[in-house]
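Sync notes, pocket subgroup
Present: LS, DG
LS reminded everyone that the earlier model was apo-only. Rerun requested with protoporphyrin IX containing FE included. Inputs:
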Amino acid sequence: MSQSITRIPALDINFLDPDISLDPYPHYEKIRALGPAVWNPTLDGWMVVNYADIKQIHVDLDNFTSEEGRAPKQQGEVLSTIDGPMHRKIRLVWHSSFMRSTVEKLSGQFDELVDSLIAEPVAEMKQGKQVNVLPAIRRLPSTVIGRMLGVPPRKSEAFIRLGDAISDMVFSGLPDDHPIEIRRMQAFAEFNELMLDEVKDRRRNLGDDLISELLRSQVAEELTDEQIAVHSGFLLFAGNETTARLISSVLRILADRPETLKEVVADRSLVPAAIEETLRFDSVVQVNYRAVKSDAANIGGVHIPRGDEVLTFTAAANRDPARYADPDTFDIHRSTQGHFGFGFGFHSCLGLNLARVESIAFLNRFLDQVPDFEVAGLDQGVPFPIRGYAKLFLKAKGIS
Ligand code: HEM
């Protein structure tokens, strides 16, 4: 960024400060009051919180790019860090596998899987114990994506273990020499090898899985095996911690609102609404990153210099009073249409239907077994820029 440009209005908010990250929402309103784009010297980027402005930025590929934005740490190019034809081609290859109708066909499998994952924690809760439900929740997305990638059962333990090691605190922004980052990078190297073996195996034995779909497509001719392994592996990182945290957030929010919990337990058609309203009200992914790639970029009339970074706070847009009435109230009966919980535009979430169907399966099976519960303890882990919980201890109510 060029030093000669004055960046105003400016507001210094350190979202990693625990007092702020615990409840960032009042801080988003301070930004909103200052203007459509507000410079943050600590984050070294422009903060954008208004719904209409974010909507425009996410589709304006002439002026904004995902290629130079600060993405969560990963190795190699992945869908969320490339624009242009390659991005479109790869998305197209996987499009039908992530369509709602396709993933809904898997929901029977998800029910069975959830039953096996929650059997032990639920039995303990029924004995009156306080149980951390996150380990069971986390296994759901990682097992499902492992199956979709065609990872054989004998390798799935390693796949899940390494996936967890990498996805854990992937959004933390820790320096590269921090022990957690060093461990993550080691796990990354091992995981990439595992994925590369899978790609080589699929080259000999094409199957009915996401890696084979990519290999069968024309775009495979433009990609090395290593690149195919990284693109495929990214599906795990993108969907693992995010889905687990979403489910944990819904459970927490319902536990805090006994009347709403009762309503949802009695009428399961409200489960999807509870999930969507959670995505709006307390978005798992709070912010997306873009960079300015032209001299003509403007946000709500504010000129933004080329090379600057733009932080689109989709969680703040989801509480923009110009878009949602009474935005700070959690209400499962409101229309959440158009929320940015899965992003918006060219880079919006490829796995949103999968995340929804998995979350619905988990919540329904859990509520069947434990219809009333309270929060006994929690740990947000890295609370920003990702919400939800790293640990959530629940206690069943009404157990004599
Ligand atoms: C509740 C769970 C999830 C949430 C909240 C979530 C959220 C998001 C968001 C906000 C983005 C957009 C990032 C941006 O614009 O910069 C995104 C992109 C993406 N997500 Fe998800 N995601 C979830 C689950 C999943 C799952 C289960 C998968 C696949 C297995 C997945 C795969 C992807 C991919 C591949 C991208 C990149 C898309 C692109 O750049 O074209 N996500 N996700």
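DG: The CA atoms of residues 33 and 49 lie 10 Å apart.
LS: The chain has a mean pLDDT of 92.
Action: DG to write up.
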